[in-house]
Amino acid sequence: MANRKVLDPGSSPEAAYGARLRRLREERGWKQEDLAERTSYSGKHISAVETTRRSATLQLSKELDTAFGLAGSPDSFESEWRKARNGVLMEGFPEYAHHERRAVEIRMFEIGIVPGLLQVPGYAQALARASVGRGAVTEDEAAGRVAFQVERQQILERRRPPMVFAVLDESCLRNLVGGPQVMAAQLDRLVEFAACPYTVLQVAPFVMGERRPLNRALTLLTLPDRSVFSYTESQAQGNLERDVSFVTPMITAYHQLVAESLSPTDTVAMIKDIRKGML
Known about the structure:
The protein is 49% helix and 12% strand. The protein is an alpha/beta fold. It folds into two domains: 13-86, 434 Repressor (Amino-terminal Domain); 90-117 and 158-276, Endonuclease Chain A (Endonuclease, Chain A, 2-Layer Sandwich).
């Protein structure tokens, strides 16, 4: 017990998670190995999470909830993990993600990179590694972002997914992310996405030039009550807007962009042509 690390729950969400895990375990008289027998994780791993040397994951949180009988409760570890996870996301994005899950239509325009909803794992991981390399995020934060990306994409697998209209600037296709193999897989994914019955994919080609009505990425969410939110990002934060006087011009600009963009058929042809160069 002499080497027992003192935990400060107030120092970070990870520390609060670890301190609570230790407290609940000790209240039951369990050693870390006892809890390990009730999960698929080792006692060493549990010790590392308690002392913040390793970050909790969604899978661990679910298994802890089963072990402690907290599954489905407001005090579950899964709920705590999700709240802490929002801390690795850009300010304003968690609120957007909440409404994205409810949307019946998603209209998006992206410049430079493929939108998160359409990214394959290798592409998302390459972007995350680059952020770590620049010192913009920690490795744990980058892993959290990638995990969240995967979770977001589940809305496309629902029995009744939202209609998704995506316009990608040509730079999204030509900006090599993760190397040729990763980019080839990403382009294949876009072709698959374009073939879905609930999607429309278009490219805003470079030749559009000054006719492109939008100069920053934009997402428009239509909710079940037919209200529309717009979402844009600066370098530091996201902005979710629901005021009609602001959103309406964004809708107009988006429709103008669609009218100037390549048709879905020509879009797929361009993607396949670029894909050939990845072989």
